[in-house]
User: Which sequence fits this backbone?
């Protein structure tokens, strides 16, 4: 009987080795945990999330990958989804209207992820592992929103309920009752969780600048001419 060898891969071994693997995961896990667990219990659940990321990098490395770009999470305490959750008072809000506890969790996760990348860099001498901390970059979209031309840093473009957050967990952006803003370039948040195209463009510029990365390697250094 003839054996089915399957379809050829999209790249050969050299292509697999030279490719850049960008890993941007973890935010959904932390965001979900924060919805029903206190801060200490959320932080206690970081190790298995980080272990999955470590395993993914090591598996790719074991198969020949040598170039990795790892992204930390953003300012979860500034998401309209989180800000719209009923609270007893505003004592947890910072000067920019974001929830301190959620942002503390994001910063703690990023610190642990950065340490993991340091550890892997020490172990994988022939690999390049760039870690980019997205928290300061995404928090700046809110803290200095006027610099970027944003009018509504904590309000969704697509949502329901109007000011201050225009977010309703039961009437999402996909709902027929949702409304969409006239100019998305004035908003940081698209639907309460994801950024608008305008905000994402600024984040992309920040990532490519290497200003938020360790080591500060430019993206084009990975490109083969």
Assistant:
């Amino acid at each position: 009987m003839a054996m089915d060898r399957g379809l050829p891969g999209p790249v050969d071994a050299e292509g697999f080795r030279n490719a850049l693997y960008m890993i941007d995961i973890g935010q959904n896990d932390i965001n979900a945990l924060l919805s029903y667990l206190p801060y200490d219990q959320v932080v206690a659940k970081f190790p298995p999330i980080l272990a999955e990321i470590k395993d993914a990098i090591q598996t790719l490395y074991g198969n020949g990958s040598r170039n990795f770009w790892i992204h930390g999470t953003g300012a979860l305490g500034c998401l309209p989804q989180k800000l719209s959750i009923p609270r007893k008072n505003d004592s947890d809000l910072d000067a920019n209207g974001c929830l301190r506890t959620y942002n503390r969790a994001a910063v703690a996760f990023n610190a642990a992820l950065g340490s993991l990348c340091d550890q892997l860099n020490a172990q994988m001498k022939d690999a390049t592992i760039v870690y980019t901390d997205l928290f300061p970059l995404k928090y700046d979209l809110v803290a200095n929103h006027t610099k970027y031309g944003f009018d509504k840093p904590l309000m969704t473009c697509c949502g329901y309920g109007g000011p201050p957050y225009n977010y309703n967990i039961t009437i999402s952006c996909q709902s027929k009752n949702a409304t969409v803003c006239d100019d998305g370039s004035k908003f940081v948040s698209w639907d309460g969780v994801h950024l608008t195209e305008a905000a994402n463009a600024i984040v992309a510029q920040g990532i490519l600048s290497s200003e938020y990365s360790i080591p500060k390697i430019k993206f084009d250094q990975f490109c083969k001419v």
Notes: DSSP finds nine helices and eight strands in the chain. Strands lie at 20-23, 67-71, 128-132, 152-156, 158-159, 179-180, 187-189, 213-214. The chain has a mean pLDDT of 91.
